[in-house]
Amino acid sequence: MRAGKSASLILALIVSAVGVAVSFAATAVPWMASLAPPARFLLVGGALGLVTTALLLPLGAAIDRTVSRLRSYLEATGSSEGKPPVFYGSRWMRPISTAFTGAVDQFRARERALNNDLREMEIRCRVSEVERRQTEAVLHALRDAVLVTNAFGDIVVANESAGLILGFDPTEAIHRPLEEFVKDSRFCQLIRDTSETANFAERRHIEHEIEVAAPEGDAAPGKTRFFDVTLACIENHKHEVAGVVTILHDLTRVREISQMKSDFVSKASHELRTPLASIRAYVEMLVDGEAGDEDSRQEFYRTMQDEAERLGRLIDNMLNISRIEAGIVQIERENVDFKLLIARAVDSLEPHAREKKISLITKLADVDLSVEGDSDMLYQVVLNLMSNAVKYTPDGGRVTIAADSDNLTRCVVFSVSDTGLGIPPDAMGHLFEKFYRVENYKRVAKGTGLGLNLCKHIVETLHHGQIGVESELGMGSKFWALIPMRYAGSQAA
Ligand code: ADP
């Protein structure tokens, strides 16, 4: 039985009871009073019950119809996306149903608005997630270390460089105290001081040294690096300190370069001053008439000429090296036959070697020894290595020039071995540096200390080859160079 009908029946029973009560009261009416009480009760109560039931049954049916239509209406409004459906309720129930459908409509409209808000928030959420990832990617790609700490000194953001420089794992350190991960107490103090000053307008710049550990698996000890540390205090919406942003910019390389430049300038000026001083001294002696006879004068002129040539070589080498280092050398790439270069260099050094009774032996493989390269530059390499061998080999020694091709590496292997002084072990690592000369050999032969550095640049920077040395002190040295037969890569612009 439906709810409306049951309610109607209950009401009908209540009304019947009321009828019974009324029938007692009806004893006041004479013809009613004449009836026996049960008959009176039955008559009045029954009559009332029947009337009420007759009235209430349609009402119950109307309630049932209205409830069932409201249910359908609710289902329809719940599923409809656009305009809500029209509600057709029973006329009797119209005030209730109108209030109800009004409330439902409001509820649905609110639901739709909330759904729209939710969708918008989801979109914003996705956009900010993408932006967060982009910012993270930028932060992690930065070579500078970026570290953000909050007002309590906990790490909030740390990029990969920060982890590498300060020696911690950024993913582990997030939301943990800085001191727990960074052992450099002065660095931590800098961040605390910046937070305490609460100066939002200015950034602090401090130079700070950090012992940076070698990468994992690398047995080398840590290296002290120099950083420009930028510290900025960040504020929250209440103008209180929200945290500190710290950026570490590595200045080590810049410092090294500026040190190298000043070393170069002081070494270059020293090397230039030596031949210049010698020329000036001879000129003064000539002016003062100290060279009395023609032979002495000729001797002075020769020395001056030698020194002027040395000065010229020094300047040429310096210019060539700095042009290669600056990447502004235009090299003429052509087919260069090493056999021809070696023959030219042997011709040029033969008189000097003969003077010192040094035998020049060539061992050239019977194969094609040509490479793609700059003929003049490669000739300088061959000549320099051969002339060093002659210079640093005592009289009566032997210099062997060999060349072969290595099919595995597709290179021409060129080497110059001598039976000369050899190289002290502590000098081996410095031979190819600018202006480096073995102290004890300065008396043995004149030089600029730039020849091997230029050779290294020509072989490695310009021809993508390799140069090296093997030596035993007192036994002799072997300088070698590997030059790729085919040039691969871009030419120095
Ligand atoms: P330099 O003009 O002084 O020869 P290089 O750059 O060619 O300049 O050589 C650097 C230094 O390396 C030389 O001063 C010399 O001390 C050492 N050296 C080079 N070649 C030899 C060699 N064959 N035997 C011994 N020492 C050598």
List the helices and strands and how they pair.
Elements: H1 3-25, H2 30-33, H3 37-79, H4 94-141, E1 145-150, E2 155-158, H5 160-166, H6 170-173, H7 178-181, H8 185-197, E3 203-212, E4 223-235, E5 241-250, H9 252-287, H10 294-326, E6 334-337, H11 338-355, E7 359-364, E8 370-373, H12 375-391, E9 398-406, E10 411-418, H13 425-428, H14 451-462, E11 466-472, E12 476-484
Parallel strand pairs: 7-9
Antiparallel strand pairs: 1-2, 1-5, 3-4, 4-5, 6-8, 9-10, 10-12, 11-12
Bound molecules: adenosine-5'-diphosphate (ADP).
Adenosine-5'-diphosphate binds at residues 384, 388-389, 392, 418, 420-421, 423, 431, 436-438, 441, 447-453, 477.
Summarize the structure.
With 493 residues, the chain is α+β, with helices and mostly antiparallel strands. The chain has 14 helices and twelve strands.
Please give a structural write-up:
- The protein contains 14 helices and 12 strands.
- The protein is an alpha+beta fold.
- It has helices at residues 3-25, 30-33, 37-79, 94-141, 160-166, 170-173, 178-181, 185-197, 252-287, 294-326, 338-355, 375-391, 425-428, 451-462; strands at 145-150, 155-158, 203-212, 223-235, 241-250, 334-337, 359-364, 370-373, 398-406, 411-418, 466-472, 476-484.
- A 5-stranded antiparallel sheet has the order 2-1-5-4-3. It has a 5-stranded mixed sheet with strand order 7-9-10-12-11.
- The chain folds into 4 domains: 2-93; 142-250, PAS domain (Beta-Lactamase); 256-326, Orthogonal Bundle (Helix Hairpins); 334-484, 2-Layer Sandwich (Heat Shock Protein 90), CATH 3.30.565.
- Adenosine-5'-diphosphate (ADP) is lined by residues 384, 388-389, 392, 418, 420-421, 423, 431, 436-438, 441, 447-453, 477.
